[in-house]
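sorry to bug you again but im stuck and you know this stuff better than me. below you get a single protein, a line of residues and a line of whole numbers that encode the local backbone shape. mainly i need to know what kind of three dimensional shape the backbone takes. anything you notice is useful, everything is just below:

***
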Amino acid sequence: MSSSKHLPATTAHVRITHQSWQNGKIEGEVSANDFQWQFRWRFRKGQLTVEPSLGRALIQEPLGRFLEQSDYQLEPGGDYSFTIRAQL
């Protein structure tokens, strides 16, 4: 039997470093396998900035979905994780 029916999955780890409801932004770090990024999410404008650019295309969309679903539960210093349906 082939395991090709199973989608690849990678766990991404998120740490919130700064949050400002007044300014409408959340900042933090996200890592998956050997990749690590810094992000800033301006949730009132729906803007997600991810740096550096290496591997950004793989993380930006799933990170955005995670943030939109979890925004009110996220707290500075908190560690969170979500699954990406891709092999990084």
Summary: Residues 9-84 form one domain. The chain has one domain: 9-84. Residues 25 and 42 are 4 Å apart (CA to CA).
